[in-house]
Amino acid sequence: MLSKEDNQLLTQTDPGTPMGDMFRRYWIPALRSEELAKDGKPQRVKLLGEELVAFRDTEGKVGLIDERCPHRGTSLYYGINAGCGIRCMYHGWKFDTEGNCTEIPSEPTDGKFRQSIKLKNYPVKEVSGIIWTYMGPEEHMPPFPEFYWMGLPEESKLIERVWQECNYAQAMENDLDFVHAAFLHRAHQEQNVQEGILSSDLGIDPEHPLVKNPPVKQAVQDANYGKRCIAVGIGTEEKNAFMEIHYIFPFYTYPPRFGGEDGMWHAFIPRDDHSTWTWDVQFTHEGTIDVEAQHARRGLDLDENYRKKISMENEYHQDRELQKTGNFTGIRGIANQDHAATETMGTIVDRSRERLGTSDVPIIHMRRLLLAQAKAFRDGKEPMKLDNKSLKTLYSDGLYDDNKKTWQEAFPMKEPFEVRKKVEQ
């Protein structure tokens, strides 16, 4: 469990909070590139408690700016995106992608007055079909993170973002929980899935190591990107299944996969303290990803605002008969199952009331790291830096090996990911 004070520190990410200001020191996925067209409709996007508007101008440049016009506060979401800028519908004030005021037609002259007006804006990069932003001080901008999947062809990736109705921490904790799959995602019978596909929309085959092994033996290692979480379960009569989850500080993960299965990368970006932008990047290491099959197994059905149509409001379409005959939850769709578990906790779970067990070891380590870094950052220290040499080759890749071997023997951390100890002079 956590103290109420630590739970607040963990979950509060608005401007001026230690966790929120620390998160602003990392690159954040904001929108998919395809969401913005030249001179097209602007898009609202809320990040870390800030209400922003994104637009693509006539030249294709992307702006991410404060939603409120600095004149009288009208939403620029309703403005006119044309002529290399967005124009407020109220009095015609116009702004470019860098937040500069370029026209004030409501005033007889605009010279120095116009030049004094600057709208809050954040720098962006378009990489691998995603518009990323950095919301921290310019002088502390880190190198852009080069994740492994970014080097794959576009046809090998499927990218989705969804509005999840809970705090980022409980959404991310779910991703670090090996044991939940054995219950939440378990299908009662064998599932007929294509090669490379982890599950059907019903769940994971009961013979897959992720679901046949509660409880599993677990360990956590420090890594130069965050934490490597290891689980060991029964694979066959002679072999154990060795699995890993990578927690990349502060809000990225690679859930467990085995060789031959499509990979998955997640980002859990606070929309505000009560909701999260959950990013799914599914990828195949070779060839073209099966978009239809991956969509079907995840089960996400979204409206124009990326909110789920299958949600708490309709009880996630839970089928009580299916719960008896088909899977553990009576809910179809792996993502819907995850969201049902985390959203029904309440938007911010009270961690002072928890009773944690041995299966929660990765979650405990993640919380300790986040809290330690946030407290150090609050005290003036620099947050963890990510190593692009590691990120370029990092992904989850489980294996089977002799059940007489320890995980250290069968599944050691690769040398590039080890934490380098500083040598005292």
List the helices and strands and how they pair.
Elements: H1 4-11, H2 18-23, E1 28-32, E2 43-47, E3 50-56, E4 62-66, E5 80-81, E6 86-87, E7 94-95, E8 101-103, H3 111-115, E9 124-127, E10 130-133, E11 157-164, H4 168-175, H5 181-184, H6 209-212, E12 217-223, E13 226-234, E14 239-248, E15 252-254, E16 263-272, E17 275-283, H7 291-298, H8 320-325, H9 334-343, H10 361-378, H11 388-391, E18 399-402, H12 407-410
Antiparallel strand pairs: 1-10, 2-3, 3-4, 5-6, 6-7, 7-8, 9-10, 11-17, 12-13, 13-14, 14-15, 14-18, 15-16, 16-17
Characterization of the model:
With 425 residues, the protein is α+β, with helices and mostly antiparallel strands. Helix content is 20%, strand content 23%. The protein has helices at residues 4-11, 18-23, 111-115, 168-175, 181-184, 209-212, 291-298, 320-325, 334-343, 361-378, 388-391, 407-410, and strands at 28-32, 43-47, 50-56, 62-66, 80-81, 86-87, 94-95, 101-103, 124-127, 130-133, 157-164, 217-223, 226-234, 239-248, 252-254, 263-272, 275-283, 399-402. The strands form four sheets. Strands 11, 12, 13, 14, 15, 16, 17 and 18 form an eight-stranded antiparallel β-sheet that branches. Strand 15 and strand 16 (263-272) form a beta hairpin.
